[in-house]
Write a structure and sequence with these properties.
The protein is mainly beta. The longest helix has 15 residues. Pfam families: Por_Secre_tail.
Length: 875
């Protein structure tokens, strides 16, 4: 019962990107409805405390020439540049251009807004979609800390291009929809949708009428709020991003989104709206895509100047005015603002004490800035409370301060502050030096002098075993960063008592803080039983290098396995403790309390996930796999390719019964939580495939009860202990997944997967039967007359036998499957096999050497006939 955990970074020396989402507009009778699905899975990976993230390689840094000077506004109309995937009809192009002109006329920016317009074939019920291509936060020029801004707005506030040649907004509209009204003058008919109203509306979302709050079942949450979200309030005026009022990821926050009493409140909205807040659409039933990020449709009805951003449009309706509310809100979001922007990259830690350090900025404003209000507040002891104002030099439109060189070790803490004529202060970084109402500091910081700071790195070792036929073993991604840079990442390993080998990790081409490594063994280099030891070393670029080791002391270890001779079947009740047949990690062959026999058991209780990270990059969202590998490969049969066993499964169930095990992309659905599964490998352990979907305690009511009422502790863990009374039977078709074929030699792996949420008693397995005889209800027997050694064609010899019976029977039809049973005189089936007969003669052998001496009945059944013969076993 958990969501994906994201690693959060609040470092203010960097800015971060999340990829945005489209608005999808679908046509329903009489209405055009938008559907909007947040996809937080696309948020760029954040780094843990201690990191300073570099700007991504794909971002082109450009210093934009200022269009303003101190005390002069930069109120130049925004420039919109439209691109087209394929040329649309002239009347459609004119609508796109007109919509862009309308928005450009009310917005100020010295960075062009780049829009890709696509007039294309879409699903028949979809009118179109549009949205910002990315959101960024903590960039120089932002007004609020840890707040996402749509890319076009962020570039306006940063006064530079932040996404290179990428588009800021992408808009798709359905070229196949027959009832568009494509005029700019006149009105649509009662059966037409006004294309210009739709395009104008969608551009509005891309420019900022959108946020980051999402709903997941009973709760609402955000990774970081959007700038829109910072101005959402309830009827009492309480901010929805105030976590003292509404905890993030809580039912209370969701209740506000469905209260019918939600508002957008900014100073300029109040000023233009008769001191009233703008009412948002927040119906009691939350609708993804309509709720929250639209104005209320009942308050702002058709023909109201502020109806543009309502959640739907009817045929024949026109909403072509920008109104007063949206432009006013956009102004307070940052489209009308002041910024202090550094003219060069921010300083990072350095060891060079022989040079001066020059701090320089430009001031941009859409209003008046007080003369001489710009200040650089700086301290050299790292304490921002000791910062003092430094004298600035003005050259053209650039203000600068030179910090003289000094041989002493210094930690520089600083921020910039200026003041508008109205008295409003603006800072870089945002909200410096302390975020109002909190104890959280906001300032830039770096150290000059000998570096003694170790790299910050994350690595999790996943290896506990490999197979001897493996030559390349790719390791999880290692994350590493350092205040002055990473020099090298490498691995040291040894095989058994052999020499230590050193091999390097490779830096990722796309994310400079990621490093990838692998073992590359020669064929035959490793053998069964070898213990491989290794550690990973991270070295920084300091003159006197600083190191980090994984593990911190000693080495990781893993064992080399090899498979045994392949068998046709495998049966065990575990009473003989066949430990040599298995490799066990987190399993044991034992007899737990409340059980009467030995079985294959995980740890009881098993532990929460702690060993590996889901995205292979470290972090707190970890999992652990408990594995039991049968080292005797099974030769898959065409007729009896089945696995039978008894089991107790007390593992954390999915929150909802019926939750799909797999996501649409084929990966395991993270909402499935813990699970057990049986997997097979036909390439000697190199790759594994699921024989069927995983399952959990939702499979049987008796197991499910372990996660209800008094069986659950206050942390959500099941305290119910397993017992033999909870056993249920499991049958798995080896061929059912389509991954295996008759004749394949398949290793089998029993796995319990545990994530970081709740845990329970675990998994117990007994009476394992793989392609062996299965107890069945004895057939009704009709004894034939026995003449010598032949009964209606059924021939068994030798009879009596000391342990081997050869069974032969001519069949009328070729290519049949017959059922062969051996039954003792008490009616118990001691042997059962389905035999595929290639020709017209059944000819097979039965090994009976371990049966008790006595009389048995051999029963052969085809689809239409049955043969029975008495046989004698004498030993």
């Amino acid at each position: 019962m958990k969501k994906i955990v994201y690693l959060i970074l609040g470092v203010l020396t960097s800015w971060h990107v999340s990829y945005s989402q489209d608005h999808k507009m679908e046509l329903v009778p009489g209405k055009m409805i938008e559907e909007y699905t947040p996809e937080f899975t696309k948020i760029k990976r954040e780094l843990p405390e201690g990191y300073t993230q570099e700007m991504q390689d794909w971002v082109r840094q450009k210093n934009i020439v200022s269009k303003s000077t101190q005390n002069r506004t930069s109120a130049s109309a925004a420039k919109f540049t439209l691109s087209f995937e394929t040329p649309p009809p002239a009347d459609v192009r004119a609508i796109f251009e007109k919509a862009a002109e309308s928005w450009a006329a009310i917005l100020n920016s010295d960075v062009e807004v780049k829009i890709l317009c696509r007039w294309r074939n879409l699903a028949s019920n979809v009118l179109g979609s549009a949205g910002a291509t990315a959101n960024v936060r903590n960039f120089p020029g932002a007004a609020k800390v840890n707040t996402f801004y749509p890319i076009a707005l962020a570039e306006k506030m940063a006064h530079k291009n932040l996404n290179g040649t990428d588009y800021d907004i992408v808009a798709n509209f359905n070229a196949d929809y027959a009832n568009w009204y494509k005029g700019l003058d006149g009105v649509p008919t009662i059966n037409q949708i006004d294309l210009y109203s739709v395009v104008l509306h969608e551009f509005g979302h891309g420019l900022g009428f959108i946020g980051q709050v999402s709903v997941d079942n009973s709760t609402a949450y955000y990774i970081y709020p959007g700038i829109f979200d910072q101005f959402m309030v309830n009827g009492a005026g309480s901010s929805l991003t105030d976590t003292l009022s509404f905890k993030n990821d809580s039912p209370e926050l969701k209740a506000q989104l469905t209260s019918g009493n939600l508002f957008l409140s900014t100073s300029k909205v109040l000023a233009v709206n008769n001191k009233e807040r703008a009412k948002l659409y927040a119906p009691t039933s939350y609708t993804q895509g309509s709720s929250i990020y639209h104005v209320d449709a009942s308050k702002y009805r058709p023909k109201d100047p502020n109806a543009l951003m309502t959640p739907s449009i009817a045929k024949g309706e026109i909403t072509r005015e920008l109104g007063t509310i949206v432009p006013a809100a956009f102004n307070d979001f940052g489209w009308y603002s002041s910024s202090i922007v550094p003219t060069a990259d921010l300083f990072t830690d350095a060891e060079d004490v022989t040079k001066d350090y020059v701090f320089s900025v430009k001031v941009y404003s859409d209003t008046l800035v007080k003369d001489n209000s710009l200040k650089l507040m700086l301290s050299t002891d790292g304490n921002i409370q000791n910062a003092t104002s430094r004298s600035l030099t003005l050259s053209g439109t650039t203000y600068s301060y030179t910090l003289p060189k000094d041989t002493k070790l210094r930690t520089i803490a600083y921020y910039w502050v200026a003041e508008e004529a109205s008295g409003k202060k603006f800072t870089t970084p945002a909200q410096a030096p302390v975020i109002s109402g909190t104890t959280t500091s906001s300032f830039y910081k770096f150290t000059i002098g000998q570096d003694t700071v170790k790299p910050v790195a994350i690595y999790s070792n996943p290896l506990k075993y490999i197979f001897s036929n493996q030559t390349k073993i790719t390791l999880p991604t290692l994350l590493a960063n350092d205040n002055i840079g990473i020099d090298t990442v490498y691995m040291e390993y040894s095989i058994g008592s052999g020499a230590v080998v050193k091999t390097g990790f490779t830096r990722s081409m796309t994310e400079s803080f990621s490093f990838n490594g692998a073992f590359n063994f020669a064929a035959g280099q490793i053998k069964a039983g070898d213990i491989i030891k290794y550690r990973v070393v991270v070295k920084d670029k300091a003159k006197l290098a600083n190191y980090v080791y994984f593990p911190a002391t000693g080495n990781y270890e893993f064992v080399v396995l090899t498979s045994m001779a392949a068998v046709n079947n495998y049966k065990t009740d575990f009473e003989s403790k066949p430990s040599a047949d298995f490799y066990l990690k987190g399993f044991a062959i034992n007899q737990p309390a409340n059980f009467t026999s030995l079985g294959l058991n995980t740890e009881h209780p098993y532990a929460n996930g702690s060993e590996e990270s889901y995205d292979n990059s470290g972090g707190s969202d970890k999992f652990t796999n408990y594995d039991a590998i049968l080292l005797k490969p099974i030769i898959v049969r065409a007729d009896t390719a089945r696995i039978f066993f008894d089991e107790v499964v007390l593992v954390e169930p999915a929150e909802t019964t019926g939750t799909s095990f797999l996501s649409p992309d084929g990966s395991v659905n993270r909402s499935f939580y813990d699970y057990v599964i049986v997997q097979g490998s036909k390439d000697g352990g190199l790759t594994w495939n699921n024989l069927r979907d995983g399952w959990d305690s939702n499979d049987f009511t008796e197991w499910q009860n372990g996660w209800t009422g008094t069986n659950v502790d206050r942390n959500g863990n099941s305290i119910l202990k397993g017992s033999a009374t909870l056993y249920q039977k499991r049958e798995i078709d080896i061929l059912g997944s389509g991954k295996f074929n008759p004749g394949d030699k398949v290793l089998l792996r029993f796995r319990l997967h545990s994530d970081v949420g709740a845990y329970g008693w675990g998994w117990a397995i007994d009476n394992l039967n793989i392609q062996g005889a299965q107890a069945v209800t004895p057939p009704k027997l009709v004894l034939a007359v026995e003449n010598g050694t032949e009964t209606n064609g059924l021939l068994i010899r030798p009879n009596p036998s000391q342990g081997l019976f050869r069974v032969q029977l001519p069949l009328e039809q070729m290519g049949q499957t017959v059922e062969l049973n051996m039954i003792d005189l008490q009616g118990r089936v001691v042997y059962q096999e389905n035999v595929r007969v290639g020709g017209s003669m059944l000819d097979t052998e039965i090994q009976a050497g371990n049966w008790p001496t006595g009389t048995y009945l051999c029963v052969v059944k085809s689809a239409k006939q049955q043969w029975v013969k008495r046989v004698f076993l004498l030993k």
